[in-house]
Amino acid sequence: MMLAHIFPPVSKKIIEHERVVQTRHVNRILGREFERNPVVGMYSLEEGLTTHVLTAIRVDAEALVFKPEKISLRELAQIVLSQKVMVLCTENAKYQFTAKNMKIDKAGNVICNIPNDLYLIQRREGFRVTPPADESFKLIIGLGAQQELLTNVVNVSCNGLQLDMRAGVTEVALGGYWHTCYFERLSSESGKFNLEIRNIYQGGDVARLKVGCQLYEPSKKTQREFENIVESITQARLTTNLKKWYTSLEWWNE
Questions:
Q1: What tens digit of pLDDT does each residue of 123-143 get?
Q2: Domain ranges in the chain?
Q3: Do domains 2-121 and 137-248 have the same CATH topology?
Q4: Residue 241 main-chain phi, psi, to 5 deg
Q5: What's the predicted TM-score (pTM) here?
Q6: Which residues of 87-115 are buried (b: 16+ CB within 10 A; e: fewer)?
């Protein structure tokens, strides 16, 4: 089960500069994420991307502490002799950093310096983020004949989104398509795009539906706008600036 949450590192050569977390935020971000004890992939790049699994335990004053999973002390003693790349995935983001000055403490845990090179990496496939509470942020579905349907955005990824909508207001069928959809916040609007309905869920409230959609033949502009939304939400959560999360949207013009 743990390996399902491990992802390989990304080459630093292709990491965009804006994905580097500012040094002043590193302790706070890692401290918050370590409280959830996420699984961490530890990679030995010089050994053909060899993977070991750790559990994040805590952030001390000057060190990160990990519990090794199914690694013998003899093997661990060899592992900590060289720097490793750590990949930490949470429900909100994927982080990557280089573990330096690695040691084994008396409890058999792995410790390393708090990194200066913390990167926020987007998972392009299936990576979902939940927008901050914002009643003004909507997804509009074009129904034809100049009719439109207002829906709430539950979460969004670079390739699609999940919507919350009133049941019975329009036909919702697996494999169906919605055309001329767009995001709206107050009077600002994104470009238009098409969605394919991939799943439908009705919870305890029979008056509402949760509908999972995937982008259908998106243009480069649409793909960029979805990535921009994911990035804006993620950065707002990292910097705890949720009330102004929308100000970095490319189509926000107010």
A1: 444 567 788 889 999 999 998
A2: 2-121, 137-248
A3: no
A4: -115, 55
A5: 0.55
A6: bbbeebbbbbbbbeebeeeeeebbbbebb
Q: Any residues with CB less than 8 A from the CB of 182 and at least 6 apart, and which? A: 139, 140, 189, 190, 191, 192, 193
What confidence tier does 219 reach under pLDDT thresholds 50, 70, 90? Answer: very high
**Superfamily of 137-248 according to CATH:** predicted glycosyltransferase like domains (2.40.10.220)
Is residue 46 within 8 Å of residue 61, measured between CB atoms? no
- pLDDT at site 231: 85
Q: How far is CA 121 from CA 16, 30, 94, in A?
A: 9, 14, 5
pLDDT tens-place string over residues 94-113: 889 999 999 999 999 999 99
What is the CATH code of the structural domain delimited by 2-121?
2.30.110.10
> Who's near 53: CB < 8 A, 6+ residues apart?
2, 3, 6, 39, 40, 41, 42, 68, 69, 70
CA angle in degrees (0–180, nearest 5) for 227-201-5? 50
